[in-house]
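Rotation project, supervised by the postdoc (A.L.). Task for the rotation student: set up a whole-complex structure prediction and record inputs and outputs verbatim in this book. Inputs entered:
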Amino acid sequence: AQTVTQSQPEMSVQEAETVTLSCTYDTSENNYYLFWYKQPPSRQMILVIRQEAYKQQNATENRFSVNFQKAAKSFSLKISDSQLGDTAMYFCAFMGGTDSWGKLQFGAGTQVVVTP
Amino acid sequence: EAGVVQSPRYKIIEKKQPVAFWCNPISGHNTLYWYLQNLGQGPELLIRYENEEAVDDSQLPKDRFSAERLKGVDSTLKIQPAELGDSAVYLCASSQTSGRPVNEQFFGPGTRLTVL
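Outputs recorded:
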């Protein structure tokens, strides 16, 4: 069984600064995907970024980038030039395994608060 | 294009009463998911549909929960009877397929259920 761990319940960052969220996972699978989702107070989960395990290059999406360390089973998210609209819960999620394609397994989340 | 639609957004009921949630996925999306999100936690998959077939319902408490996706489009999730511990947010998501390559899951705004 796969597990996803987010060890930071809350992170605070000032506007324009950078914040890094940590995520570790446990799996015996070799082929899998990792995701970061954002959930603002409206509750709608929004995909921020995804990483395919077989790709060594770290994914980037504008101000969002990941540091994927496959051997260490670590998948951190960096938010650069933080904006007030980045305030939200951020969830790390795993998908993989022969019987589990399509099933997202989420961590407990990290609340990010961006302050002026 | 409209996103995933869920109704109602909020529901308050007394314990032992029945309740139903409705979800309309994005047009053309064959796969539909129901997730349960308890307060302060990440979502957990309850059931996944491929068209009208439930292909993964291993996490659905079948003694009181039921779901259907008639005609492979809209879906309804029902709880009967509701218990205090069912208070949570129920999220619906859809994707084009659930196989590989992995397609993005798009989430609705969820239904917040409060059981008194």
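Student's summary: The CA atoms of residues 62 and 80 of chain A lie 9 Å apart.
Supervisor addendum: The mean pLDDT of chain A is 93.
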